[in-house]
Records
---
Amino acid sequence: MASHTNFRLHAFVWLALATTAFSLSPKFYDKVCPQALPAIKKIVQAAVHRERRMGASLLRLHFHDCFVNGCDGSLLLDSTSTMDSEKNARGNFNSVRGFEVVDQIKAEVDRVCGRPVVSCADILAVAARDSVVALGGPSWKVRLGRRDSTTASRTLADTVLPSASMDLPALINNFKNQGLNQRDLVALSGGHTIGLSQCSIFRNRIYNATNIDPAFAKERRETCPRVGGNTNLASLDPTPARFDTAYFKNLVKKRGLLTSDQALFNGGSTDKLVETYSLNPDAFWDDFAKSMIKMGNIKPLTGKQGQIRVNCRKVN
Ligand code: HEM
């Protein structure tokens, strides 16, 4: 009996130690570099002030980092002779942006900290939060202590990043593979309350879809012709520089820009939640913040795993 209790106690202590050592914490840089988070916030604010869209672009970088083998900064690595960058994957090429701002943040954070202690993966997580706040959205405590990968995988990125043509079952399955549920899917898709998309991506929907408001389709066709204009931009919701509920209000009106957006309100299991978020900004904000934390916890490298890159584009 005594040895049983002893064993349980040991197991408990070991588990407690293991989880403290290897889980993320909002206080991770409090002692080692308390200047880090304010420095990131300042640069994000300045970048968003210069160009509102940058807030959207930085949020998307964190998402595309986390979905490919966890939040490990792998997206930021440039190609080498032996490694094809995730930047070349279908969902990223000529689409993801904001790398110069990440470089600027990394240089400044390493300067204020006196040495490279903040990972590129953590920079993406904090910049995503600060971007959402800068565009008027909710705030949350970012869990920190991620380390950076020494590898990247374009082929994995091609497989796991969701595509704009996905229907609801495909989206649900895609998020499930990351440990995210339907609520996370709908809340996080609310990230499309900010930012823009290119004509080549939504062309098929505005010319061929039946679950689209005809007036909206007509309006979008004006700047997205059947042929040409591939890179012409349209906003993902009517207020692309404001983190509000317009994205969900729009879905209810069949004015989603991407097929994957409208799939969330198309007579399926997520309709109810879309409606709730469209009417209740607090519900959206709360769930978005919770799901961002959950997404940020996907398979981080911690402890002695990986490294803290000096240059986010290159392995040390
Ligand atoms: C649910 C599956 C998702 C799909 C299929 C999807 C797909 C896309 C596509 C195709 C674009 C436009 C790219 C372009 O035209 O170059 C885009 C933009 C964007 N996505 Fe998503 N996305 C999804 C989920 C998310 C999530 C979870 C977030 C963040 C929490 C997010 C944040 C953004 C943002 C902010 C933009 C605008 C970026 C900018 O203007 O630079 N997306 N997404």
---
Amino acid sequence: MLEILIFLINLQIIYSSNYQQDELLHTPLMGWSSWAAFGCNPCLAYHYDKCLCQTGIETIANLLVDEGFRDVGYRYIILDDCWQDKIRDDAYRLQPNKNRFPNGMWPVVDYVHNKNLKLGIFTDLGMFSGQRFPGSKGFFKLDANTFANWGVDYIKVSAASAKKDNIESDYIEFGIYIKEANRKMIYATSWPAYLYFYEYTINYVALKNTCDTWRFYYDTGNDWSSILGVMDFYAEKQAQLRHIANDGKWNDADILAIGFDGITNDQAKAQIAVWCLIQSSLIFSTDIRKLTFEQKSILKNKEIIEIHQDISTKPGYKLFQHNCIDVWIRTISPSSDGYFSYAIAFVNRNESSGTVIYHIELRDLGLDYINGYEVTDVFAPENSSSRVQLMFPHTKLHAYIKPSGVAFFKAKININSNNNLNNNPLFLTFSNNEIVRYNY
Ligand SMILES: *[C@@H]1O[C@H](CO)[C@@H](O)[C@H](O)[C@H]1NC(C)=O
Ligand SMILES: *[C@@H]1O[C@H](CO)[C@@H](O)[C@H](O)[C@H]1NC(C)=O
């Protein structure tokens, strides 16, 4: 009954928002990128399944399906730099490296499509890619047609060697050719933030006509400070970044560092919580065979994905910072009478602080719905009895936040309070007036 009601509410929200039929990315993108897992590693016979080549990509496609990643939403496999040959063919078309893709791109795209997955590919706006393969400058139309001809679903265009003065107009021009070649191809730009915000005035309307998702800051590296750097940049520019992300167009904060050797699982949780709250693309890039059970559970966390894919309201923002704790928040569905549900992340910036216990009343976060909220501790074990609690505006939330980690909550507006109370008076157990436990 509850499920049906929530479904109807969601449906209503979808149809009453600015949803347009021809939007490509109805919700922010989820997928896997070859970059951190395979990079430019040469393909040698004994590890064809662990490099950027036909076998390697087919192996990842199988793993995405078999391990349940596709079915929770990770549908894009993105071939990053190094898939190309060093030279264009006789007709000036980009061609794949023959050692990596001996049968060309068609069988790879077919294989991926037959698994009900989508294929992304990389190129550069300038003369060369970051790894010195041919870039698309001078060949925008030809390259867009080549990718369309292969059946590619997503094109990531980096700007490693692009000339500063032409970046905006070139991105727009490339986008026009991409959409002309196939309106269904997703166009993702990836230009450095300093160009984006400090030296250029971007015509977002023109860019957004063709571009579906855009990187807004430097790469996430193999350390906590690079993740904090992206978060801080977003927070600094959040008014603009939230404003431009809507109508099926999304900010991209770069790949998830989960599984990197310089990143702890707590840091990975903090990154994914904020990424999902600001509705960045969720693209992980570690070889799936190297992910631990815990890392896989983090990526496939049901609440995380639900919040990430909820498009009823604007992306989230940093609410405030208190000592080393950053508080991030986002309104989500369902809503009622102008009151919203919320996703709230408490990020501990400090790597050496020990666990911080942060207490705050819900109303101090702006949660003032009189019937309260069903508050889910997103990362608590599924079977833990305190995972979901009923809380009211004056209830104190106790967040336990590990060093460079996160406490992540979903506060669902309690619109069915009367039903539950009447149907099952034993449903609620009260404990000393402060926390009300709510056991399903
Ligand atoms: C991090 O926590 C440690 C231990 O409590 C403290 O000494 C240090 O000053 C904190 N660092 C920052 C940047 O707050
Ligand atoms: C919860 O599940 C975990 C993993 O399945 C198990 O180890 C643990 O004992 C369970 N805890 C409770 C309270 O049931």
